[in-house]
Amino acid sequence: MPQAPKITSVDALPADEAKWIEFQKISWSDQTGKSRVWEAASRKTRGKSGVDAVAISTVIRHPNRPPSTIIILQYRPPVDAVCVEFPAGLVDEKETPKEASIRELHEETGYRGEVTSLSPTIVSDPGMSTANMQLATVEVQLKEGDQEPEQALDDGEFIERVVVPLEELYERLIQYDKEGKRVDARLWHWAEGLHFAKTML
Amino acid sequence: MPQAPKITSVDALPADEAKWIEFQKISWSDQTGKSRVWEAASRKTRGKSGVDAVAISTVIRHPNRPPSTIIILQYRPPVDAVCVEFPAGLVDEKETPKEASIRELHEETGYRGEVTSLSPTIVSDPGMSTANMQLATVEVQLKEGDQEPEQALDDGEFIERVVVPLEELYERLIQYDKEGKRVDARLWHWAEGLHFAKTML
Questions:
Q1: Right CATH number for B45-199 from 3.40.30.80, 3.40.50.2300, 3.90.79.10, 1.10.10.10?
Q2: Do A24 and B41 make contact, defined as CB atoms within 8 angstroms?
Q3: Which of A6, A8, A9, A23 is the mutation pick for testing B, counting most B CBs within 10 A?
Q4: Residue range A123-132, pLDDT digits in tens
Q5: Band (B45; pLDDT cuts 50, 70, 90)
Q6: How far is CA A59 from the centre of its chain?
Q7: CA angle at residue A192 from A162 to B88, to 5 degrees?
Q8: Is the minimum CB–CB distance between B199 and chain A shorter than 8 Å?
């Protein structure tokens, strides 16, 4: 029976116990030749693609519904909140980012589509982290009467998918925030770029 | 004399030496009641606003130039590359995010403007980090003949600002990537949302 996830304790994590992430002490010589140190977090899971993760901006087109995208809601322990994000996931050791995009979109939402573009390798938070990613755009063409597909989640994965008309995305994210959910910065920026194009140009 | 920054070594950072970031071992009880552990990185610098950082999407309006934004280029040791980002920075201990937005925009670009919107608190990479931020939109109205203002950088800060017409932003980011620079994921998403609105809807 699903119940609300709950944090029971937060402790300092000794470096030699960490399995998924690690801390780097980066010694570097700056633009004046001065020796300096920078601290960064890093994922230990990066595979041979060199890309940690992918996210997917989906466009669902349907004969008589407005163009829509899919966002997912899932609890994220680091911020102790249900987060609102694009479908996303880590790239497996031997996968390409494009393959990971198709797989993750299917697992988290049930949908399959065509990857119509793939961003360059972009960096998630380069002031504190080595993490990088690629953003795939996937087009899904539905026909009249197509049923909503089943998600393909692992046991113990609790991910809610929501299909949102693109026209309503920005307001929907504001609404989720008011409900106490936390919107992912990348999804927010995408929605704000879209909103900006419609309202400020 | 500015010279190319260079990494001299990358070592494991023991938790008790870290000054800026820390590792958390989060014990939590999942949706089935099972006890689980999540590893996260966290900034140690969060002040009383509860928000780690701000970024600023600027809109420069001018009587006879196209609407433009400002991006900054700076070397980031965690990814050993010059990164292309919105102006951004940490919120000081006693500052509000809005105040930090005005200050950071001025320091990094020289421009001052009016904050016309401020995003909710959004989360930068919630699968691995507690980091959060707000995105401010700042409007700068220029008059014919206004000079480009001076940046107000600290000694040892090397930040290049670039004013880019919004119509050219997406292609410009692709060009920077081809030159070996690394585009920040949030800036990329904003530009892709804008591009999407113009090309896919």
A1: 3.90.79.10
A2: no
A3: A23
A4: 999 999 999 9
A5: very high
A6: 16
A7: 125
A8: no
